[in-house]
Amino acid sequence: MVLTQKLTSLAFSVMDGVNEKKGKELSPLQKQRIVRELPNPMEFCSYVFQFQSMLAGPLVFYDDFKEFIHVPLPEEVSTPGFDVGVKLVKSVFFAVIFLVFGTQLDVQHVRRKLEF
């Protein structure tokens, strides 16, 4: 249902862009939601199939979606590569510890110690 609403609203917004080029008068709402050029395939698919509103909504208009996607990032935002690398090293470290020492730990022994 939301997919139908997205496609319909995008079609009307694109048609408003065509009508504007032809010189037809548009309402203020039409001018606000206008799409002057067709989205490229990547933008179109990301708009139509965004997981946040795929099944239950809410309906997000294409102009709002495009404005959100193309917001420039602040300069102080770093790439997550370093943080991802640290977490990867930690996960490998603890996996090795588990594989080496996991066989030496008898779960039944721990259970017996906890029983009163």
Protein model, in words:
The chain is mostly helical and about 120 residues long. It folds into two domains: about 1-70, no CATH class; about 80-115. About 60% of the residues lie in helices and about 0% in strands. It starts with a helix and ends with a helix. The mean pLDDT is about 85.
Largest sheet: none
Rg, alpha carbons: 27 Å
**Unreliable segments (pLDDT under 50, ≥5 consecutive)?**
none
Strand percent estimate = under 5%
Structural class: mainly alpha
Number of separate strands:
0
Fill in the keyword field for this structure.
116 residues; 2 domains
Strand-helix topology:
Layout: H1 2-21, H2 28-32, H3 41-48, H4 62-69, H5 81-101, H6 107-114
Short description:
This protein has helices at 2-21, 28-32, 41-48, 62-69, 81-101, 107-114.
